[in-house]
Amino acid sequence: MRPDPADPDAFRRDAHRLVDWMADYLAGVSKRPVWAQVEPGDIRAALPSEPPEHPEPFDAVLTDLDDLVMPGVTHWQHPGWFAYFPSNTSPPAILAEMVAAVLGQQGMLWKTGPAVTEVESHVLDWMVDLLGLPATWRVDSGVGGGVIQASASDATHAALVAARRRAAQERGASLVDCVAYVSAQAHSSVDKGANVAGYGHVRLIDVGDDQEQRPDALRQAIEADLAAGLVPTFVCSAVGTTGTGAVDPVRAIGEIAREWGLWHHVDAAWAGPFMMCEELRHHQDGLELVDSYVANAHKVIFTGMECTLFWVADRRPLLDAMSILPPYLRNEATESGSVVDYRDWHVALGRRFRALKLWFVLRMFGAHGIRDRLREYIRLATELSDRVDRHPSLERVAPTSFPLVSFRHTAGDDATRAMIAGIETAPDVAVTPSELGGRPFLRISIGQLTTTEQHVDHLWQLIRDQAASAAPD
Predict the structure, then answer these.
(1) Bridge pairing between strands 145-149 and 308-312
(2) How many Å apart are CA 412 and CA 415, to the nearest integer?
(3) pLDDT given at position 2
């Protein structure tokens, strides 16, 4: 008899097996090589050339999951993950994803998923308080509000579109005249988002000794564009850049933005969640001068991908830019004005129940438990940074404000490249090299859920050994 994939009893049996598989994976991930062990094309070559014509049993699917898929998986949940930034998930988030999948909600309107909307609004308001953001950014303030986006890139794009629309309405700006300003060290998503949004110009602003955006350089760029007849429209402050963790002066940039009517967006995609720790909030001083703000819960708050938290100080420009209401979406709740329809807060119409996993994580870890882990990451990074400072062959290229340590070899670029290449041969750690001013350096990001001091000590031993090997004779 062919299996019926919609049979509830079969689903119950298969689901129990899959949960065991997931628990075994989390328990044993540290024993796997961090990076995928395949060459380009290996996985496609192992898959059947034709799709299945008839149903297959779950046993066959599970076998192929192990044999075909897993060799091509890069293990972001490995405790030796020090590359890029973390992309953490956790058992509470996984449980929530399972619930979201079985409910299959489409929360484009309040009417199509009241719980999708109201849980999201509520946890985003919780996060306003937990991160020390302005109270008027709460959804229930009726002024600003938060929404979960798929990624920080999506959130930044939404901010750019809202800024462009506002500039067109208030200053008659055309697309070709709109200018966006961003630190030369900022994430590429700002430049990309401006291009997608149709901005005519993007200016990369010079940085200072700590890789922070220079307000004087920003002011000069704006004045030059105004003199050329262009329309300064958008400026982004970074709190924790991807390359070095640099922090732009939010208040000084905000004052310049207010002076000339620019939309001021803060990209705190990675570092924003660390503002749960009050002692770190000085890095984002000046938020009352900000129009929008983004932080990724899926990096260090253990929620799994597609949980980007995006707030606007005033929701009206965003809704003006995003709202279109065809007849088939009209309903009594929407017409009453008493509900939030999150389809108006981003480009996509369809919406998963993303907030469920943040709700699960906040309840099952608790704010205190999350803070403890964030502070531990800071401690581990500070200790690693101190080790780098004490080592005669290593030098940092930026301050360690958050758990990101960026450094190079003092013997020069060739030695730095050799050191990095040696570390990358280790199967149980993942690191990311980068460049600053054309010179290579190594960035170590600490924040994977299961990373401990023991794992950082092991990494340091590799760094120390390879630094010695890379030194010229």
Answers:
(1) antiparallel
(2) 5
(3) 67
Residue 186 is predicted with a pLDDT of: 82
Ranges of residues in the chain whose predicted pLDDT is under 50: none
316-362 pLDDT tens trace: 999 998 888 777 778 887 778 888 888 889 888 889 999 999 999 99
Q: For position 1, what pLDDT does the model report?
A: 59
What would the CATH number be for the domain defined by 105-352? 3.40.640.10
The fold for domain 7-35+74-90+365-473 equals: Aspartate Aminotransferase, domain 1 (3.90.1150)
Assess contact for 272 and 292: CB atoms under 8 A. Answer: no
7-35+74-90+365-473 and 105-352 have identical folds:
no
pLDDT at residue 269 in the model: 94
The domain spans of the chain are 7-35+74-90+365-473, 105-352
